[in-house]
Design goal:
By secondary structure, the protein is of the alpha+beta class. The protein folds into two domains: 124 residues, 3-Layer(aba) Sandwich (Aminopeptidase); 167 residues, Gcn5-related N-acetyltransferase (GNAT) (Aminopeptidase). Helix content is 30%, strand content 30%. GO terms for molecular function: acyltransferase activity, transferring groups other than amino-acyl groups.
Length: 307
């Protein structure tokens, strides 16, 4: 790591101790920009295309141009210079409407905020972290007699689970970065079957004898192609991929009960804590998750379309 990059890492960890001490710079195309005083900043551009069979195609546009800025301590000035080069470079590719430019930046580093906004970016996602509690997890709290019943999902529940996942996807697409595709149901079904078969970390909530919610969870490392690589402390983390509550069941404790069950399973030795993505533009998740102990560590800024 160069002295320039070390300066940026020091800045990040000083702002937020949850950020990994050593950043992960992906392999890609290097972009450089010069400031008026001659200082040079750089970034790494990675282009990813999420095809029709990809789950990632539900989380945002198919054609993704992601920039990892390496600004040292140049702050907003360095970000402004690099974003200009970024926009020019993407424009050369003439991307279509289903495209996006993204920059992932520490949530607590607010200095470049107005610069990102001026370049047409919007904060559409947070990577949020909940450290594992110091005390061993207590048993999941029983719900009242008229409250939700939580159980592990089985293969025969997949039909109901897909319906619940579609509800969440439609709401997330209306309020934030997700995208509803023609084959959304098929992709969600495949993902849920895989989670049940390999991990068993899918819960279903029943209320009044009806399916009312789901939680799809698991664990992941911080190495290799993990989205957590260089973002949070190294080790193993639990994650909540999807939490969905049927519209008719909202406000009745379903989401809280599902989250308690998930945390009970994920808060084990060897796991640092739990992570998830939520959109600050989603009026439900932006309130729900902070109440469950999560706080933004990284923010995903997006400009749609990419050019």
């Amino acid at each position: 790591m160069s002295e320039f990059d070390e300066a940026q890492s020091r800045r990040f960890t000083a702002l937020d101790p949850m950020i990994a001490a050593e950043s992960h710079v992906p392999e890609g195309e290097t972009l450089t920009a010069a400031l008026p005083d001659g200082t040079k900043v750089r970034g790494v551009l990675v282009r990813s295309f999420h095809g029709p069979e990809s789950m990632e195609s539900l989380w945002g546009p198919r054609d993704n141009f992601e920039l990892t800025p390496l600004l040292g301590d140049t702050g907003a000035a360095g970000m402004d210079a690099l974003l200009r080069v970024f926009a020019d470079r993407v424009r050369e590719e003439d991307p279509g409407a289903d495209s996006v430019r993204t920059v992932m930046w520490p949530s607590r580093d607010v200095e470049p905020t107005h610069t990102l906004l001026a370049h047409g970016f919007a904060a559409l996602n947070h990577l949020a972290v909940r450290p594992r509690p110091a005390a061993p997890p207590s048993a999941a709290q029983p719900t009242p007699g008229d409250g939700p019943v939580i159980r592990r999902a089985a293969a025969e529940d997949v039909g109901e689970l897909v319906g619940l996942a579609l509800e969440e996807l439609r709401y997330s697409a209306a309020s934030g970065p997700s995208v509803v595709r023609e084959n959304s149901a098929a992709l969600l079904e495949r993902g849920l079957r895989r989670s049940i078969f390999f991990g068993g970390s899918v819960w279903i909530a029943e209320l009044d004898g009806r399916p009312a919610g789901l939680a799809d969870c698991g664990t992941m490392p911080t190495t290799g192609r993990s989205p957590l690589n260089g973002k949070v402390h190294s080790g193993r983390w639990g994650y909540v991929l999807t939490l969905s509550v049927a519209p008719w069941a909202r406000g009745r404790g379903v989401g809280a009960a599902l989250t308690r069950e998930a945390h009970q399973a994920l808060d084990v030795d060897g796991v640092n804590g739990t992570v998830l993505f939520f959109s600050p533009t989603n009026p439900l998740s932006s309130v729900f998750w902070p109440r469950r102990g999560y706080r933004p560590v990284w923010t995903v800024w997006e400009a749609r379309p990419a050019a």
